[in-house]
From TrEMBL:
Residues 186-392, 531-591 form the SF4 helicase domain. The lineage of its organism: Eukaryota, Rhodophyta, Florideophyceae, Ahnfeltiophycidae, Ahnfeltiales. The main replicative DNA helicase, it participates in initiation and elongation during chromosome replication. Travels ahead of the DNA replisome, separating dsDNA into templates for DNA synthesis. A processive ATP-dependent 5'-3' DNA helicase it has DNA-dependent ATPase activity. The intein is an endonuclease. GO terms for molecular function: 5'-3' DNA helicase activity; ATP binding; ATP hydrolysis activity; DNA binding. This is Replicative DNA helicase. InterPro entries: DNA_heli_DnaB-like_N_sf, DNA_helicase_DnaB, DNA_helicase_DnaB-like_C, DNA_helicase_DnaB-like_N, DNA_helicase_N/primase_C, Hint_dom_C, Hint_dom_sf, Intein_C. The keyword Isomerase applies. It comes from Ahnfeltia plicata. It catalyses: ATP + H2O = ADP + phosphate + H(+).
């Protein structure tokens, strides 16, 4: 008896009787399920047998099949789950149990709330256990531990506060409220978060909370200055807070830029102190306004992404007016102690973390980024979206097979997407479409694999080997690649195959293949890497024809290219850039926005 008491005492929070009453009542009256399913999910139940039965009930409900004891018995028997839940006697027991209690809908909702309450208690225990285990870990940084613990707590908060967010009536209600608020904002002329540039705001409808915005360009294009122009507008015109993480420039250098942009005094004059009395008064006035603003600048070099996210959350909590986070720049952020096989995967982890940070803090996050080196090999230096990626290109004679792998675990997906790279593309499945981008001519390497197969790739495309992903220029003869083979009908295996020869071919037309949601695909049955799109909602690219001319102090026209916009149109416009004061101004609508002075 003592052992039984101890076992029962240490069971996680649950209510066996309430779970039985709910399922039994649904078996008797299927109309209860529509409301109960909005309160509890399969995971809300504690006992595995109840989870299985409830999952079967939901399947019948979604298929619009009338629910009865006979139907659920047949469903469970067909799935070979009937014995696992306790057989026919379990179903009859559930029905008898529910008949012993008053099975009104209002009472059932109370039982549903009881088991949901216990579900939250179990989650608190689970997350608390994970946090305790983090405390005993020695190999991870304090920032990573703190950020992970916060993520556990935030996950719990999301579950408790947003459990009804997937209901259609809630979504429609939120949508109508948002439209009403936008209408009231327009009537009352309430300012929204804008960038300060008319053409940009017209295309993007301003800076949306939760968006990750990438500003990219070649060196000396003015990426940092463009971002600080936006920051200055938010600080001065909108009177909102700004948080800047500068991994390249010091706090003083950032401050010099803000004052220069606000006063139109060249940065060099501010640094040397060669300014007039009138300009000095103007600088004092700007500094006084900055003192009462919520401007936070962090210039920690080589900061890890977990440290950055942790500090951003603390700053946002301390300064509620923070309306934007600017990070300069992506390639200088460290992935920390996270085990990633290459820098490309690290950057992917960083951008996903920043996207989650933007959504969690409900502010736009602007991240500056360099372009890959492929652009320097082109005659036309105008940037494209593919210049953000690190993956290479594929030769014109490479066959793309019909089999795809969706992630790094190589889960097989047999749905047809592409039939032949050199032939026509098949779009039988409209939601999975591939996009082919022709690049300029590059040197192509032919790999002879298993003596009979060959693929053609550029120097930086990745192939899956026996140990890890390797770029083409890291491969040697006798390296083992991963090859897909059909072993038996409906059975497939992955097999090591040797590289017999690698040959450099003359320059040839190459192609960048974009397949959304897929990290790997097959060429001649060899698993190679897919180009991964950025996690950004908006991608801006800065471009001008003469960035490295000697006479570089005169104002320049820059093309601002919106290469990607998840929730709106793409396009391009021009801004005037003054290299001395680093001021960006709209060509046609500069008079719309006022400065800090």
């Amino acid at each position: 008896m003592r052992n039984q008491y101890v076992y029962y005492h240490f069971l996680p929070p649950q209510n066996y009787l309430a779970e039985e009453i709910i399922i039994g009542s649904i078996l008797i009256n299927e109309s209860y399920l529509s409301r109960i399913s909005q309160i509890v999910t399969t995971e809300t139940f504690f006992w595995e047998c109840h989870k299985i039965i409830y999952r079967g009930l939901l399947e019948l409900y979604k298929k619009k099949i009338s629910i009865s004891a006979l139907k659920i018995l047949y469903t469970l028997w067909n799935k070979k789950k009937l014995k696992q839940i306790g057989g026919i006697s379990k179903i009859t027991s559930l029905i008898k149990q529910s008949q012993s209690f008053i099975s009104k809908k209002a009472h059932l909702e109370e039982y549903a709330k009881i088991i949901y309450y216990h579900y939250i208690q179990r989650l608190i225990i689970q997350y608390g256990y994970h946090i305790i285990q983090l405390g005993y870990t020695n190999k991870l940084s304090n920032d990573y531990l703190h950020n992970t613990a916060l993520n556990y707590l935030n996950s719990l908060l999301e579950i408790t506060q947003k459990k009804d967010s997937d209901k259609l009536e809630t979504l429609i209600g939120d949508l109508l409220v948002k439209i009403t608020n936008e209408e009231e904002r327009a009537i009352n002329n309430t300012p929204k978060t804008t960038s300060g540039f008319y053409d940009f705001d017209k295309l993007t409808n301003g800076l949306t909370n939760g968006d990750l915005i990438v500003i990219a360009g070649r060196p000396s294009m003015g990426k940092t200055s463009f971002a600080i122009n936006i920051a200055k507008h938010i600080l001065s015109t909108l009177n909102l807070g700004v948080c800047i993480f500068s991994l390249e420039m010091s706090k003083l250098q950032i401050l010099h830029k803000i004052i220069s942009i606000s006063s139109h005094i060249p940065v060099e004059s501010l640094i040397s102190g060669q300014i007039s009395k009138k300009e000095w008064c103007l600088v004092q006035s700007i500094c006084n306004k900055l003192l009462i603003s919520d401007l936070c600048i962090n210039d920690t070099p080589n900061i890890s992404i977990d440290d950055l996210a942790c500090k951003a959350k603390i700053i946002k909590k301390e300064f509620q007016t923070i309306q934007i986070i600017i990070i300069d720049y992506l390639q200088l952020i460290q992935a920390g102690n996270i085990n990633r096989k290459n820098r490309t995967q690290e950057l992917g982890y960083i951008t996903r973390t920043l996207k989650l940070l933007a959504r969690e803090l409900e502010v736009p996050v602007i991240i500056l980024s360099q372009l890959n080196r492929n652009i320097e090999t082109r005659i036309n230096k105008r940037p494209m979206l593919s210049d953000l990626r690190e993956s290479g290109c594929i030769g014109p004679n490479t066959k793309i097979d019909r089999k795809y792998y969706k992630d790094q675990n190589l889960k097989f997906n047999s749905k047809l997407i592409i039939s032949d790279f050199s032939g026509k593309f098949s779009t039988d499945i409209n939601r999975y479409q591939a996009k082919i981008i022709k690049s300029l001519k590059q040197y192509v390497y032919t790999h002879i694999i298993n003596k009979i197969k060959f693929i053609q790739l550029t120097h930086n495309h990745k192939i899956l080997t026996a140990t890890k992903w390797k770029k083409q220029d890291q491969l040697y003869q006798e390296h083992l690649t991963i090859e897909y083979k059909e072993y038996k009908p409906n059975r497939n295996i992955l097999e090591f195959s040797p590289i017999n020869n690698i040959q450099l071919i003359q320059k040839s037309n190459v192609y960048d293949l974009q397949i959304h949601d897929y990290l790997n695909f097959l060429t001649n049955n060899v698993v190679i890497h897919n180009s991964i799109e950025q996690d950004a909602d908006i991608v801006l690219m800065l471009y001008r024809d003469d960035p490295y001319q000697k006479n570089n102090n005169s104002p320049k026209l820059l093309d601002i290219i919106i290469s990607k916009h998840r929730n709106g149109p793409i396009g391009a416009f021009q801004l005037l850039f003054d290299p001395l004061s680093t001021v960006f101004s709209s060509v046609k609508h500069a008079e719309i926005y006022n400065g800090l002075n």
